[in-house]
Structures are given as structure tokens and as C-alpha cells.
Amino acid sequence: MGSFVNDVFLVKVDNERFVAKRYTNWVSLKWVTLSLYGIGSVRFSISGRRRMEAEYYFNDLLYRRGLAVPKILGADTRNRIVLFTHVLGDQLSSFLGSFAGFPQAGQRERDAAYNAGVLVAGAHEQDVALGDTKPENFIVDRRGNATLVDLEQGRFRGDVSWDAAEFLYYSGHYWLTYSRDLANFVDSFIKGYSEHGESRVLKSAASPKYIRVFSIWTPPLIINSIRKKLLSSTAS
Ligand SMILES: Nc1ncnc2c1ncn2[C@@H]1O[C@H](COP(=O)(O)OP(=O)(O)O)[C@@H](O)[C@H]1O
Ligand SMILES: [Mg+2]
Q1: pLDDT in tens, 174-188
Q2: Would you say the C-alpha torsion 24, 25, 28, 31 has a positive or negative sign?
Q3: 54, 113, 130, 181: which could form a disulfide with 189 (CB 3.0–4.6 Å)?
């Protein structure tokens, strides 16, 4: 299922669908991980066992608290495989930045960003930092509801501002230039997050230590505009 870090399989049994994820030990690291080592401010787990344990634990915890994450159906610790319910929808990244100029452009994007903000703040309320909130990890249905998969980098009392920073700066690179649609997308996430989250978390997502990570990826003008929104959102 489009993952090069773990082996993620779509499993069909009769007419039912499931997702099986096998946690391999990382040999080649995600670019983001490398950069994170560079800034040294966000800790990332490498071992397959550690990532499987975190995913199992935090997925189960957030599911029981009513947050939009898939349900865990079982785990095979010897082979390091976890089985999840299959979430219907598209990766949020797959429709960012497209259809610009069409009527209704960006409505699903905005709804998804708002719901992602609510979801991320909901995890933070439980003292859980998610660790990998890039738009690929949000599955969005037709009405714009967002479900978060990939909790293997979750941890208690982790870096919550990183979650907001990664979501927004990473999403930003899907637009070629700063546009009204991108501005609306960022506003929607901030609005959703602010309903349950703390504004100081958004404010520190503007910190230079995160900007440095994304500067190799997202154009500076886009990063700067997102940053300004994060800083001004805290004034109200
Ligand atoms: N339960 C699920 N339902 C639907 N799609 C999923 C589910 N779990 C994972 N996926 C899809 O597979 C991709 C890779 O899974 P993920 O858990 O993010 O693995 P990785 O840690 O390798 O990024 C996700 O981005 C998502 O598109
Ligand atoms: Mg992922």
C-alpha cells in the first residue's frame, strides 16, 4: 500500500478488507528522519519492535478515547505484524493543491484540514504526541472526515508542536505557490486545532528549528506565509 518503510498489505478475506502492517528494522531512513537527527530536537524510533509496540499502544488508546483511528484486530509479535480495519478513502496528500480555479475548489481539502486539526488536538489532549502527521497518513472520506493511520512514532509528552509543524509545512509543498486555497487550508487546520488545542503549541510550530527541516522541501515563501498564520493565530 505505497509504503517503503514498512510492508503494508491490503488483505482481502471473502469480501472484507483489512490492512496488515509488518514492522521491519529500518535500513534506509525516511528523509524526514534523517533531518530530524540533524536538528536533534525530535526523537524518532528506529527498531521495528519499538515501533510496533508504540503503534499498538497508541492506536488502541486513541481508539478507546473515540478518536478517528483504525481499529486493531490482532497482533503477531513473533512476526511483528499488526492487523487493522481498512479505512475507506484517499490519502489527504492525493488531492492537495489540485483543481485550483474550479468552483468548489478546495472544499474537501478545507474540511479534511479542519478535521485533521480536531484529531491532532484530541490526541494532544490525551498527552500523546503523534510524531508523523504528514498528509499521507490521513485517510479522507468523501465528506472530508479524516482518519489517522501510522501511530508508530507516537509517544507520551512528546513534541506536540512538531505535529502541527509537520502537517502544515509538509502539506505546503503540494502547492506550487502561496494561494488562497493554501491559505484556507492552513486556516482550517488552525481553526480545528484551536477548538481543543492550546495556542502556544501552534505558536511554537513557527520555531526556526522546524523551519530548518522543511526548508529543503517546501518553498521559502510558502513556509513563511504558513509561519505568519501560526504566529497571528495565537493573538486572538
Ligand atoms: N488501516 C488502513 N486503512 C486504509 N489505508 C491504510 C491503513 N493503514 C495504512 N494505510 C495506507 O497505507 C499507507 C502506509 O501505511 P503507514 O501505516 O503509514 O506505513 P508507514 O509507516 O510505512 O508510512 C498509509 O499512508 C495509508 O495510505
Ligand atoms: Mg505512513
Answers
A1: 998 889 999 999 999
A2: positive
A3: 113
